[in-house]
Amino acid sequence: MTIKEKATIIKDKVTVPMIDNYYANNHIGQSVICRWCGKNSAKLTDRGIFCYRDSCYINYSVIDVYMELKGITDYSKAVLTLYRELIGNSISTTPIQKSICTKCHITNTSASVNLKRLEHIKTNFIPYQQLDNNAKNRVNNYLNKRCIPYTALYLDNLGYKLGVYHSNGHTNLAIKWAEDYYFTRAMTGDFKGDYGAKQMIVNEGISNSNVFVVFEAWGDCMAYLHYATNCNPSKCPNIIILNGATIPKIEQWINDNAHRTDFKVYLLLDNDNTGDKATNAIIEAFPHITRDLRQRYFNNTNAKDFNAWYINYLSITV
């Protein structure tokens, strides 16, 4: 077994309270005093410890903590020693299998969810409101780069819980769409993908309307919510984020809901060839229910999506 494989097993099986008596009476997910800065600004995670105080801001795996405690500077030596002391042959190394998510209130187009990753996110999730000002600014700056302007607070105002969690040295943005589904994005490092199974998100707003607005991705949706609601929860529309879903899947959803009174679906997909083909196919299948909303915003512009259109709109009107 390689060093990397043993390190992965250690991170999966060993927690900080198991190796550090300082935290022996604490549990995973609990806020604790950071032994490095002495402030009550740290949180135990299932893979280590994170301190969100700006002057400290440590993000140690359980192996990093072990190296600090033992004064070991060689990573390979620390892995071999920790594996021999706490794991050996006593713990099964069988990978955790993916399971079916039965609690999610979102329409799943791929129902298999990595529950271990889900539990990691839920355990380590730090709500936006609990972040210090510098951390909030980092989140806002990230959202601004995604063409979601001004502040992240409107997400909470509209009922979507925003926060961050830390994993494998990365700081990740997380939007809590439902109790058992978080949409995440890495804010640091080279990781660009999304955690978890691809799902088509169907989220009905506070109003009793049967009108839905469809987006390809969360960035366009968040920008539209900010634009359309002006941070007023009572104006929150019904939204659908395709998030990789195929045309037949969204068409099946429309067909299943076509019986609703005054049911309408407004398509605000990307302004490119792929968006054109998807929009035309859906409108052709449901000509009396659907409408291409891009015509309202993208005429006479080169905006590639609603994000780009909105940031340009702000530069003109603000």
How would you describe this structure in keywords?
alpha+beta; five-stranded mixed beta sheet; 37% helix; 19% strand
Element layout with pairings:
Elements lengths: L2 H11 L2 H4 L11 E2 L9 E4 L2 E4 L7 E3 H9 L4 H12 L12 E2 L11 E2 L1 H10 L1 E2 L5 H13 L7 H5 L3 E7 L2 E9 L2 E6 L14 E3 L7 E5 L2 H12 L8 E4 L5 H11 L6 E4 L5 H13 L4 E3 L1 H5 L7 H12 L1
Helix pairs in contact: 1-4, 3-4
Describe the structure.
There is one protein chain. This protein is α+β, with helices and mostly antiparallel strands and 318 residues long. The protein has two domains: 3-86; 100-317, no CATH class. It contains twelve helices and 15 strands. Helix 1 (3-13) crosses helix 4 (75-86) and helix 3 packs across helix 4 (75-86).
Query: Pairing-aware structural class of the strands and helices?
Result: alpha+beta
Largest sheet: 5 strands, mixed
Structurally, how many domains make up the residues? 2
Q: What is the percent of helical residues?
A: 25-40%
Q: Helix count, per DSSP?
A: 12
Q: Please state the overall shape, judged from the principal axes of the Cα atoms.
A: elongated
The count of DSSP E runs of length 2 or more, i.e. the number of strands, is 15
Low-confidence stretches: 89-113, 190-197
Estimated share of beta-strand residues:
15-25%
Order of helices and strands: HHEEEEHHEEHEHHEEEEEHEHEHEHH
Q: What's the pLDDT, averaged over the residues?
A: 76
C-alpha end-to-end distance: 59 Å
Radius of gyration, taken over Cα atoms and rounded to an integer in Å: 23 Å
Strand order of the largest sheet: 11-13-12-14-15
